[in-house]
Amino acid sequence: MYYQEDYVLLPPDLQPRFVKLPELREVLGRLLPTADLPKDLAKLSSPEQQITNLLETACELECQDGTWQWYVVRLDK
Question: What is d(CA 64, CA 51) in angstroms, rounded to the nearest whole number?
């Protein structure tokens, strides 16, 4: 997929919802302080860099309240 704008966000309660990229970035920003960050992610200097790295290299984040997952989707109109 060349254009990644829409995602399915799967929180620990397993109630999926569709989100746009800005909303996903906001959710990840709120989750970072409660996350068990891998060493390569923790060494990045800013939350924005951490979020960008997560979006480019991962699809889940382990937090205190459980595992959050996200997947890019293509919505046909």
Answer: 18
> Under a CB-based contact definition with an 8 Å cutoff, are residues 70 and 17 in contact?
no
Cβ neighbours, 10 Å, residue 51: 21
pLDDT digits (tens, 9 = 90+) for 13-30: 989 999 999 999 999 999
Residues 67 and 12: beta-carbon distance below 8 Å: yes
- Give yes or no for residue 1 having a pLDDT over 50: no
Q: Could you tell me how many residues make up the chain?
A: 77
> DSSP string of 4-53?
--EEEEE-TT---EEEEHHHHHHHHHHHGGGB---HHHHTSSSHHHHHHH
Compute the distance between CA of residue 73 and CA of residue 77 in angstroms, rounded to an integer.
Answer: 13
Q: How far apart are CA 42 and CA 56, in angstroms?
A: 15
